[in-house]
Amino acid sequence: MLMANSLTHIRPLTCAAATSAPRLVPQPRDLIKWVKTEGGFVHKYLKIAQGGDSFGLGLVASEDIPKGSDIIALPQHIPLKFWSENSLDDGAHSSLIKLAQHVPEELWAMKLGLKLLQERAKKDSFWWPYISNLPETYPVPIFFPGEDIKNLQYAPLLYQVNKRCRFLLEFEKLLKHELENVKPDDHPFGDQDVDSSALGWAMSAVSSRAFRLYGSKRPDGTRSNVPMMLPLIDMCNHSFDPNAEIVQEEKNGNSNILVKVVAGREIKQNDPLLLNYGCLSSDLFLLDYGFVIQSNPYDCIELRYDAALLDAASMAAGVSSPNFSSPSLWQQQILSHLNLDGQNSDLKVTLGGRELVEGRLLAALRVILSNDEDAVKQHNLEALNSLAVEAPLGISTEVSALRTVVALCVIALGHFPTKIMEDEWLLKQNVSPTTELALQFRIQKKSLIVDVMRDLSKRVKLLLAKESAP
């Protein structure tokens, strides 16, 4: 858990995540009015209102908005980027660039987060009307109490949470060292102390609100992706069935508009404005946005392709003498093509999501459990990877493969210390917001595993019925 200190002249950050966090200041500037004053467009029927319990403030239609209507449009100078054309080439900016060079690409949000902290430290920042409207804290796992991090119960997510916390603590030390002898005028944060909690706040603000837009064209004609914070637009909530979409405008003629939100369908009175944040797993929604989507169709669980584990699962499924631990040469070659064997292999495989069983895992199971080289070589990897291709190596092999996956699911469920019914009972108790999120998350993961088991068990029954049909 990160310590609760922050920039000295702003309200201090807290570590206790809340599902409905207060703004940075008690009475922030009117964001809609600011966007309009700065040359942006806001539809007359758009208002800011309290959303659902887990989303805080959001944008709502005060009257019906027709399909195709422009709802929000932001000119070039309003989005907050790490680098902009009007940035001053001063010492403070140079220090910020040097700090950003220490941020790994996978934690790109911290780079823009540094710029956000710099602007938050300025009393006369252009973006203060926007920043003052940001939440004081974010309900993301890096701010969970230690017990609720454990309550997540899912090793891949625990690894990511610990990795981010370690990075923030180490980056705090590096930042203090780098800025130790910087002159006050060249200090990127106005000579104020920035600790791991402030860094965590900034990284969470960016990861939960930034959009990747097209940047300038490269010499080869491709476009770079530039993370930007889009005031007002970032108050749209998420849905896999959105009613609005982001459109980025080309800079041509006298148009100064960079990005706008357009109604994808008619938006009824009192409906929230919804964008699709992406087809993301529950891990990323919780890590970056601080909420859990029930029955997320894009969620999955991660497993390791481990030969001994697969042998054990196959035997538990009733397969006699599986040979995952000792594949033949031709099977090894196919595993190499699947990147499941060899020095630089990727042994992380998934269950759930749109594929139900990751293609590489399914192909490996089919190939190893078949033992018929000629039959295997009649099919390409695309067919062996697909669950839609029914029993390419015969019903017996397919049943063994699917039953092995079901056994893997049983093993995966066994790694959770509590059962779904226990979690659901706990959820009905008077628990803290962070405990509630942790319970929702692990229920989602366990339910996903159960759904995979049910689906594959049905497939097995259908295959056996076909096999026994006259």
UniProtKB/TrEMBL annotation:
- What name does this protein carry? SET domain-containing protein
Give the GO molecular function terms.
Answer: protein-lysine N-methyltransferase activity
Which residues, by range, are in coiled-coil regions? none
Keyword rRNA processing carried by entry: no
Q: Would you say which domain of life the source belongs to? A: Eukaryota
Biological processes per GO annotation: methylation
Keywords per UniProt:
Methyltransferase, S-adenosyl-L-methionine, Transferase
Pfam family name, one: SET
> Which PROSITE patterns does the record match to this protein?
SET
Q: Where is the SET domain?
A: 44-278
Q: Can the keyword S-adenosyl-L-methionine be found in this entry's annotation?
A: yes
From what organism does this protein derive?
A: Anisodus acutangulus
